[in-house]
């Protein structure tokens, strides 16, 4: 390779690296700005919850609970909300809301993997039904292994004094690092139950590591 070609190759590499680094910084900056904007709007978010008929559960104020929740989210993590309707016992409503949050989170995780598998050419030719058992097993093990992943921020309740059909809502934060470890554990246990998934476990694990 001549000195001129070598120089051009190095220049191209440096440009690519700089562009990649710059784009990553831009994404991080945008995420920080978005988080800061949400934190700045905490009172508006609090008012919206109140307009929906909810009040804070516990001794904290709703404004403060929302603010602390948004600050925690800005440090990383995903918001997960569990809801329950039509109950009379507050304890029952709370448990149903928590269970719904777990089910919704596990369903979303399973659908994410399903989407990546069905859209990847590597899995072309494999009947979708072959993976159905894996998706169900993966979702089940996500639900089982959620301890420590979801942290409750605050709860709100809407009390219906006429017929007692109350509503309950719990706001959680899913820890990113713990969630990744949980996905890998769920994958490890789910592939044991499905022969087809065992053959493609390495490729599926790559999808999880990308999240």
What is the structure about, briefly put?
With 211 residues, the protein is an alpha+beta fold. The protein contains eight helices and four strands. The protein has a single domain (41-210), classed as Thiol Ester Dehydrase, Chain A.
As an assembly, this protein is: single chain
- Contiguous helical run count: 8
Neighbour order of strands in the largest sheet: 1-3-4-2
Number of domains: 1
CATH-scheme architecture:
Roll
Total count of strands: 4
Would you tell me the structural class of the helices and strands?
alpha+beta
Helix fraction, binned, reads: 55-70%
Overall CATH class: Alpha Beta
Mean pLDDT: 83
- Which parts are unreliable, with pLDDT below 50 for 5 consecutive residues or more? 3-32
Describe the structure.
- This protein starts with a helix and ends with a helix.
- It contains eight helices and four strands, in the order ααβαβααββααα.
- The longest helix is centred in the N-terminal third of the chain and has 38 residues, at 3-40.
- With 211 residues, it is α+β, with helices and mostly antiparallel strands.
- Helix content is 66%, strand content 14%.
- Mean pLDDT is 83; it is low at 3-32.
- The radius of gyration is 23 Å and the shape is elongated.
- Helix 5 crosses helix 6 and helix 6 (176-193) runs antiparallel to helix 8.
- The protein has a single domain (41-210), classed as Thiol Ester Dehydrase, Chain A.
- Strands 1-3-4-2 form a four-stranded antiparallel sheet.
Name the features.
211 residues, disordered N terminus, 8 helices, alpha+beta, Thiol Ester Dehydrase, Chain A, four-stranded antiparallel sheet
């Amino acid at each position: 390779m001549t000195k001129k070609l070598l120089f051009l190759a190095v220049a191209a590499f440096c440009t690519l690296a700089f562009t990649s680094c710059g784009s990553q910084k831009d994404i991080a900056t945008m995420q920080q700005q978005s988080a800061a904007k949400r934190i700045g709007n905490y009172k508006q978010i609090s008012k919206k919850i109140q307009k929906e008929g909810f009040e804070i559960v516990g001794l904290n104020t709703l404004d403060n609970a929302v603010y602390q929740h948004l600050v925690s989210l800005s440090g990383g993590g995903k918001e997960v909300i569990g809801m329950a309707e039509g109950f009379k016992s507050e304890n029952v409503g709370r448990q149903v809301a928590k269970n719904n949050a777990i089910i919704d989170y596990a369903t979303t995780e399973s659908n994410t993997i399903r989407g990546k598998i069905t859209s990847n050419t590597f899995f072309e030719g494999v009947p979708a039904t072959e993976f159905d058992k894996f998706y169900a097993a993966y979702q089940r093990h996500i639900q089982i292994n959620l301890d420590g992943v979801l942290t409750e921020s605050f709860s709100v309740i809407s009390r219906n004094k006429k017929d007692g059909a109350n509503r309950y809502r719990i706001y959680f934060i899913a820890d990113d690092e713990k969630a990744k470890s949980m996905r890998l554990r769920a994958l490890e246990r789910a592939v044991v139950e499905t022969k087809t998934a065992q053959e493609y476990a390495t490729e599926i694990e790559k999808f999880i590591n990308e999240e």
